[in-house]
Amino acid sequence: PDECHGGTREGILKQIEDWIDNSNGKNILWISGAPGVGKSALSSTTVSRLENNRVKSPAVFFIRRQGDRDPQSIWRSVAYQLAQSFPSYREHLLQTRALSKGKRIEGVKQQFNDLIVIPLTHIYSLAHSGSSEPGPVVIIDALDEC
User: Fold this and answer.
1) Which of 13, 34, 63, 98 has the most CB atoms at less than 10 Å from its CB?
2) What's the CA dihedral at 136, 18, 146, 72 to 10 degrees?
3) What is the pLDDT of residues 69-96, one digit of tens each?
4) Where's the Nephrocystin 3-like N-terminal domain (predicted)?
């Protein structure tokens, strides 16, 4: 997706950056609006700025193809990309899956908890305890289309 044009939306982009930098703030930011108002441009610009200026690495998911819009597959896809980018996430996820003996995770809520919440909580606790690996910033665009 296209980024914001230079010099535009600086106020909201600054608010997003402040939210990312606030380790004590809320951990979910939901940007909503009517189709075509620029939510994807905000996401793309935020990703570019994170990649260029931050210690934290973004994990980005743009849901564009019809097949990507299945709620059952979203959290598996997010978990896969996080595992590719963050070794501590991958290790924790592998340990958790080994303890469950690879049993299939049923239901979107359970997938979200087991694949996202628990491993990310582990990563963030490591990041706050002085680990050299920063916690990820997860950006999901077009979730409202699922």
Assistant:
1) 63
2) 30
3) 677 788 888 888 888 888 888 988 888 7
4) 8-146
CA end-to-end distance (rounded Å), the chain: 18
Alpha-carbon radius of gyration of the chain: 16
Question: Can you give the pLDDT at residue 62?
Answer: 59
User: Mapped to the 3 state alphabet, what secondary structure does 27-57 carry?
Assistant: CCCCCCCCCCCCHHHHHHHHHHHHHHHCCCC
What is the residue type of 74? I
Report how far residue 35's alpha carbon sits from residue 49's, in angstroms, rounded to the nearest whole number: 23
Token pair, residue 7, equals 């010099």
Which strand (E) or helix (H) includes residue 87?
helix 87-99
